[in-house]
Amino acid sequence: MLIRLADLMPLIWILTLILALAAVGYFAGKARALASSGGKIRDLHSLPSYYGTNVALSSLVPSLAVLAVWVLVQPILLESQVVKLIPDSAIAEGSTRDLVMSDVRRVADGLDMAVSNSLLSLEESEEMRAESTDVRKQLGDLGVALGAKVSPEVLAAAQEYRIMRKTGSLWMMMIVLALALVGAFYSYSRTHKDFRARNVVERVILALLIGAASIAILTTLGIVFSMLFETRNFFSQFPAADFFFGTVWSPDFRGDSELGLLPLLWGTLFISMVALLVAVPIGLFAAIYLSEYAGPKMRAVAKPMIEILAGIPTIVYGLFALITVGPMLRDHFAQPLGLGESGSSVMTAGLVMGVMLIPFVSSLSDDIINAVPQAMRDGSLGLGATHSETIRQVVVPAALPGIVGAILLAASRAIGETMIVVLGAGAAAAQMHSGLGALVNPFEAMTTITVKIVSQLTGDTDFAAPETLVAFALGLTLFCITLGLNIIALVIVRKYREQYE
Amino acid sequence: MSDATRHSAPRTSLYTLSPLTKRRNATERRFKAYGLIAISIGVLALLVLLTSIFNNGRGAFMQTYVTLDVLLPAEKLDKNGNRDIEEMKAVSTFGYAPLITNALISRLDEIGFATDLKKKEIGAIVSKEAAAQLRNFVLANPDSLDTTVMFEFLAGGRIDGYMKGRVDHESAALDNKVSPEQLDIVDALVAAGSLEKRFNWAFLTAPDASGQRPEAAGLGVAFLGSLYMMIVVLFLALPIGVAASIYLEEFSKQSRLTDIIEVNISNLAAVPSIVFGILGLAIFINFAGLPQSAPIVGGLVLTLMTLPTIIISTRASLKSVPPSIRDAALGVGASKMQTVFHHVLPLAAPGILTGTIIGLAQALGETAPLLLIGMVAFVREYPAGPPEGFFDPASALPVQVYNWTQRADPAFVERASGAIIVLLIFLILMNAVAVMLRRRFERRW
Prior knowledge:
The complex is a heterodimer. By secondary structure, chain A is mainly α. Chain A folds into 2 domains: 5-195, no CATH class; 257-368 and 401-500, Orthogonal Bundle (MetI-like fold). Chain A is built from 18 helices and 2 strands. In chain A, a hairpin with a 7-residue loop joins strand 1 (249-250) and strand 2. The radius of gyration of chain A is 32 Å and the shape is flat. Chain B is mainly alpha-helical. Chain B has 2 domains: 61-199, no CATH class; 220-441, MetI-like fold. Chain B is built from 20 helices and 3 strands. Chain B has a 3-stranded antiparallel β-sheet. At the A-B interface, helix 1, helix 7, helix 9, helix 10 and helix 11 of A face helix 2, helix 12, helix 13, helix 14 and helix 15 of B.
């Protein structure tokens, strides 16, 4: 743990101090600008508040930026320093440097806690030696459990770690406050009636706006890099070919797992296909009816009703699948037909997911059908075609690319959907070797990529084991599939829109 | 032309349709019917979904309570007799359970109900939670020792099920956790007015309970967790989203950077939510070292998920402010920045607010990413007040639902559905506020 609660209070203090400084700077800057023009606002370049804001911003922005970077970087630097302090002899057989380091961290945190609860004085905690005191027992009494006896090296490293952490925080506080002061004084000294305060302030605000807009890029980068990094770790322990072309999924945390993607991919595609078979016809017909036939009153009632389906959280659909649809399908279809005994099945998850996707397909198609120019309809009707003939032979073909785009977007939704399949589809991976019959039986329980991401990453996880890391490879696969579908869909939809604009 | 007139002389009456016209009309009607059927299926699915959840979850809002007069003997609860709280803590809940059983037996004697059940089985009518309730009361009021105090205890999960029609004498005969004889006692207690169903406030306020005690499980911790996360989302996603939209809508020129940002935002809106969970786990927990199960991490992840929604709706409402407003402001000498912040933004505010509320409602119902950042953990402690509370472990409403579906006791299905009802009520309220804001403040230019 790099950011700890104990670090939080000084942080809040620093923040309050900087904010207070900025507030003082605001009024001081305003007053100085007014004074420089002899109290006449007319002689100032900008409104007085801009001079104040300038002072406040120049004390806030650099100091907060440095603070943020420091908080993130200091722990990483410190760790790398402290790790060097642990001699090789202190690493017991079967242990690793990382494990010893986490001991060091816990001892240091424990000592901090003891000091903050005033169970130990500062001097006592710094002079404590493993040779003379039983650190483990003493910390154990405070509720800090340590695995093994604390060796002198670990204790020494922990002491050093604490000292470095403390000096680091002290330096941080001083540098950040100094920056805030320097910034405030610098801009205060520049405050003069001819100073172009508004231009400076507006440039800073524009930079902040650009920064906010760039968070979207940072998020995408974060997603891609976090998954790439762990996926690389995974492929260094598990051959990539076995992952992409493996036909058996049986993870085993004791080792010797088979982590083949294909059974999961098949489950995902199968369930998505069932869902689309439900959602596409219903959604499409609903959209056609609403946009071509329904009067304004019917539209005002039916459209929101269907769109409510889109606002319902997926956990609700999941529960619906688990307690209503699953048992119903099992009792009335699967068991009488002798196709399966399980409530959770491809059919359960597919049906419910299909319902979830109806509004998705219908509102996208609705927009697209409405975008078809009225002149095309009029032409067809004028030639004597009936309404339905017009729709089938003119409107739908004209809207087809857009509809295909909508279906692709719905498919990407279906592939990435998690809660419905977690609760409705079961946890057993498809058995690729037990024959085609079982593989295409929609009443068989089957699992998907998303379900396995959840099951491999919840509970006690060991981020060194391939059984955990495989989740990142699965996530990356999922991300690539959905990204590909989305991009194709967006390109199609955009092309189509341009056609009629 | 005269030829044509002769040939097209009507072969049939205008009043009878030709077979072709009939067929075409029938197709027309069929096609229209397909549309109607599709819409009805959609509406029907919605109704079935809501009724099923409502029927399953209604029971969670009622709970069975047993009212008993319990004698608190000092010689058992405070052996040294000096009312020292620390010493009294030595008596565990096992010391308190027999008192409740005795109270129940004496109540049965009072109403003249004879039973040959063992003491333990009679005691099982009351929830295991009751002993803890009694112990807390005694430790808080040591003066109450050696007096008789009236308590309302939770009834056991199966007894509660009997009162709600989930359990009957037949199923009880097959169940090793409850027997038909116990149900006879329940009938007698109901007749005597000692056992009744009442509105279950504890469901909304109490923390989660273990898998053996569905009757005591509540949503309190999940409520606080969700509330904290929504606070984080509101305070991060709203300013960042509005700032980003202002830049993209008002200041950006067509450039490489703007293009990349636009593509990124539309892609993020379509990335599966579970991928955001992986991001949260890898970046916020493993890299930045924030604690697991903490509302702050959940809030950060949900912020990233909600941002595209907020940006898209904010841009739409900025776009709907007519250019004449901007021109007028620029014309009287306002700078571009002043125009945006003094005129455009206030006029777009209702739309932005509506979009934010809808984004928050989406975030409130999101489950999958929260599973990955450890919010599935069993949490019984309420998180502390802010700001420390943001770092304490907590649950969230939808995750609590998921948690309960994973437990064996069927009573938890009722709890999960009840929690969904609570969640849906919140979503309906939030959306209603959004609709109201739109109606009230929306301007047509």
